Amino acid sequence: MHTPHPGLRRRGFLAVAAAGGIGLAGLGSAGCSPGTDTGTGTRAGAARKGGRLRAVFAGGGAAETLDPHLGNLFADAARAKALFDKLADYAPDLTARPRLAERWEASTGLDRWSVTLREAVFHDGRPVTAEDVLFSYRRIADPKKAFRARASLEPIDLEASRATGPRTVEFRLKRPTAEFPNVLAAFGAYIVPKGTERFDEPVGSGPFRHVSFAPGRSARFRRNDAYWDGAPHLDELEFVVANEESARVNALLGGQVDYAHELTPTTARAHEGRGRIDIVRLRNSAMQGFVMKTDRPPFDDPRVREAFFLIADRDELVKGALSGAGVIGNDLFGKGCAHYAAGLPQRRQDLDRARRLLKEAGAEDLKVTLDTSPVAAGFTEAAGIFRDQAAKAGVTVEVRVGNKDSYWKDILDHGTFASYRSGAMPIESHISQRLLSDSTTNATHWRRKDFDELYRRLQSTKDDRERAGLYERMQRLLHSEGGFLVWGFADWIVGTSRRVRGVARDAPANTLDWARFDKVWLA
């Protein structure tokens, strides 16, 4: 358990130093993925300065931007973290860790948080100040804009929040929020200089400085020798774009790039251990499952939901839909991460009990439409596999393939049963965004006042152990009655050339050490 720094209690605040972890954000864990190897294979060696690394990602075409508040793609996120910093970011176990924030302090009521910034400077030499933080957050929260982190910043009363010193911000919150550090680490919540609205020549505080940018083609950055967390090893970092996975693989094999993002399990199997490239598997990076709408037939009956939990042969789904590149799930989000209820029994296929439950529910000859789409790898394959599994329990599943461009919007309120996946985030964020009565992306339509109340209690509870107990109670409810059928967690796969060192192997996508090129070097 994390404890506050002994010298930081003052003025009714509970203080947490950077070295002390997250304080009120809760108990630690073994992490979302095993190990802490940041080398490539066994050839890590001493870090070496110099050289240019070229990384290839799928891109967004001519509409790409270096505005860190607008990014949605992995390429956007990788470029943004090279140029900018957040106040906090996620460790491998999805707990918040200080970045531009040196420490944070919670009031006794958990509705005020004082954040002290570390001494850092922007690329033009200006210091990073509390006013820059408030400007950045108010820009993100602008209701006229569509910035990704806007929903994450909702707990903050930004009109009442203020700078209490050049490097100190007092955030006033709309309600007690024990897990407020998660807000500081939210995807896209980057700090930019006060008054910034143009990003054609962006100025950030990150480990690399902007050199050039051609949307949909390339971006070139150079080392920031004044970076507060230590200058990068690389002289230059270049991002190039290739939307087809085959093009990314061929560029890596041909030596045109050193790092290729988002490879398929088939590619990984073909090249792993063969000596030409190195394969890095970022474990537990993507939850894979189905959503059942709990407010309409047939899934408004918890017996039908339990029957579907028991129909799933998770091992077959991981093997068939993910080509074995992942692990089975247990109908809960966040396997291996902080607060995950690992003690609950692992569900296994039980067709006899599934049939009995369906009979009790009067759904013996049930017919269900399963919405899916090629919007994500493995979706259509998983739908076909589950269809065949359900037939063994007497359930007819009709697979309906939808438009990948509108899929996520379509399944939010329409249909009853659909393919679903999610990248890594704290379990608290998953709950607040998807499982409360007023959550804006509640695809299961799980709306229960008792569950909402447990969440309010969790956010109002200072004690780590008490809060851990509330997390477990909420997950027990979801495991027994929820609408997420979580059958697996997929690896995120990247490839590197044999000369690349320092790539983190325990960093799920969306965490601090994923695509963190300031710690990478070339042998």
Secondary structure layout plus pairing:
Blueprint: E1 13-17, E2 52-57, H1 74-83, E3 85-86, E4 88-90, E5 96-98, E6 101-107, E7 112-117, H2 130-140, E8 156-165, E9 168-173, H3 181-184, E10 190-191, E11 208-214, E12 218-223, E13 236-241, H4 245-253, E14 259-260, H5 265-271, E15 277-292, H6 302-311, H7 314-321, E16 326-328, H8 351-360, E17 367-372, H9 379-391, E18 396-401, H10 407-413, E19 417-423, H11 427-434, H12 449-459, H13 464-481, E20 484-497, E21 500-501, E22 521-522
Parallel strand pairs: 2-13, 2-14, 17-18, 17-19
Antiparallel strand pairs: 1-6, 3-10, 4-5, 6-7, 7-9, 8-9, 11-12, 12-13, 14-20, 15-19, 15-20, 16-20, 21-22
Question: Average pLDDT value?
Answer: 91
Major sheet: 11 strands, mixed
Task: Return the structural class.
Answer: alpha+beta
Q: Tell me, what's the shape?
A: globular
Unreliable sequence segments: 1-31, 33-38
Instruction: Count the E strands.
Output: 22
Q: How far is it from the N-terminal to the C-terminal residue, by CA?
A: 38 Å
Helix content: 10-25%
Number of helices: 13
> What's the alpha carbon Rg, rounded to whole Å?
23 Å
In percent terms, what proportion of residues is strand? 15-25%
Key phrases:
523 residues, alpha+beta, eleven-stranded mixed β-sheet, five-stranded antiparallel β-sheet, 24% helix, globular, disordered N terminus
